[in-house]
Batch of 3 targets.
Target 1
Amino acid sequence: ESAVPANLRGADGQWFALSMRARVLYADKALKLGAFRYEDLADPKWKGKVCIRAGQHPYNTALVAALIAHDGEAKAEQWLRGIKANLARKATGGDRDVARDILGGICDVGLANSYYVGQMKASKEGTDARRWGDAIQVLRPSFAQGGGTHVNVSGAAVAKNAPQRANAVRLLEFLVSAPAQELYAQANHEYPVRRGVALDPIIGQAIGELKVDALPLAEIAKHRKQASVLVDKVGFDR
């Protein structure tokens, strides 16, 4: 418990996060942008300029769930409708396609996960992925009510009836140790959950240190179904 912040683990200690993938803003390098809030993407000034993957993808339903927790369902619905009105293309594809379409001039900004930035920028010079990664600047958005960046996580738990419980606990304790957390950071460009572990150099340069949204993941999870219903209600993926 001392290694993993309280908002990134279950209150009962039965599960906890192992690494984080921040939901960040990809933007055209030519844009001059300051502090950015997730809510800002619904501003009409971005009409025809936003790219994003399907709203029903878990990365996005988690973000909508967090917005519901912060701002309430009515404002979350208004936000979804605003972003849908601002889309440059149908909400589809993957996160790297956001960078691809920014380079292609289809859109100016979009939401995607941080670790793809590392993957693209670590790709061989001259490849499509490298060109996509080099075409964008990356900002760490925050919630208007929360002041931190939303994260998706990889996590782990020990099954209640695990036959090798002691060994399982030892494995999980290792996975949040400093050496293992460094592996998460370096191998897949993810943010470590353990404080004091160095970031992957590419992520450190392109994005920097995170101020993570303090809302507990368990609280966000309570609104996942509600978020999925809202995505369908506004026809986000149509």
Target 2
Amino acid sequence: MGRYKKYERDDIARKAMEIFWRNGFQGTSTQTLVESMGVNRFSLYAEFGNKQNLYEAALQLYAHEVVDQHFRALESEDGGLPQIEAMLAGFAAAAGELGSELGCFMCNCATERGAEDPGSQVFVHAHVSRISAALSNALNNARQDGVIRPEVDTVQEGQFLATLLLGLFVLLRAKVEPAVVRSSAHIAMAHLQQLQLRSQVQGQSAAQ
């Protein structure tokens, strides 16, 4: 059998992503991959070489598809506090819901393989940098629009919020009491209010 076409390769990586995301690297055997994806073992190895390469292809696809979907709004010129608040509200709403225990594939990778696998570290570090930059971009837009105080360090705040978001994903994966996740998300939203100019906060209060 020849090499897979790109769309076939992406489809295999997508199916592998779902399996690795749910079971982890160590919890996923090659036999599980073959049976779950309905592919030939030899063809799979001919295309990807080994399980590690398939895992990295799954991480790459996750970055392009899932992360793009959730963070593109923050990275845009229109990204601002409403987009950050919506993301935090999403955590609060998702806590305890079916499927939330999957967490974030990149965060799962970090906790399982980040300390021992250089290949995984590359993806995790890039993911953390991207999330931090996306949040910083949204905060910087808000600062330029006069929504938050001019002295706010948007880079440091972006790093702080990224740490919080990634930590919330880990809590979801660990099936921590949903109230803990909701409380953390609500405190982060209150923190965002503290960054705003007083006139903005007063205007929001008057509108409620």
Target 3
Amino acid sequence: MRRKTKAIWIVAGTLIGLFFLLGLGYGKEKPVNGIYTGLLEAFDIKGEKAVFAYSLKGKVGIYTSDLHGKNVKRLAEAGEGEIVHHPVFSTDGKTVLYIATPKDKEEVKSSLYVVNIDGSEKRRLYAIDSLITEAVFAPDNKTIYYLQAETFTNYSPIARRDAHDFDLYSLDVSGGQAKRITTMKDYRLESLKVSPDGKEVYVTKQDDQHAKTAEDIFASKHKVFRILLAYPEKIEPVPLQGIKEDVFDVEVSPDSRWMVFNSIANPGTNENFQYELYILDRQTNQTRQLTYLKKHAGAAVFDEQSQWVYFMWDKKFGEGDPEHEWYRVSLDGKTVENIPVVIEGGASLS
């Protein structure tokens, strides 16, 4: 059955590759010229602090700032030939976890690092000759969950090599042996989040569970899925009323009431796809559009009071390398504010 699914994905990958090459905007854009200068998309906030990755003169570092983009300090810097990315806070805000991977995409290996918020006691927690794409702390600060790809290949002759055969893993914060939680070998898992009560994990992935042909996969949508950690074989799509297009970048509010994600706001047009943030009220199951900025509103994080959504906006989406700016929007969508970030030795990002 697994061989059949992979064969279908090979054909589907070819169709998707053709669609992308035709310039119709399939999927989410990635850097085309290597590591670009500026903010990387993934970030986190905790209390009055933010943590993010920033590339300056070809060197990527992990930085912290306040929620106004000021008082920027560098926590860690990538080693030679590495990039560092996807920083997240521990639940108590005292530690930052981040991923280090080679700049050379042909080298398939990853390391997980932790460092104190003041930059002290940096240590490598885990290393493996596979690709780890995202990692987060569990609410109890005792466990780390991460997404790992088993293979790095191209599923079609015209597609670029990329990570595939994803599953969810866990690791004790003290290190030791990793534990595989799922056995999906999914084509792509993204946007890893743990529920505030620590009982569920959310990811986005293609809803291809019942696909029998390449056409079925091509017609399927990228959706939010819930994985019950007590029963990891039980993987359920999260209903999002009124949303018919692909969904990415999911985030759950600390009070568990809200879920924010991005999706295509202009389907069926001849323009480049525009990704906006949408918000689900989990008490009423009502979904509404939250931003109207055009281009690409991406990775989002709630503040601890569940009053604001902080997010990255790519002002150059569809035009080449990303150029991210940091924003926040109130939950009613009425207030949208740009947050300039000033890096020492770099320009103001506003």
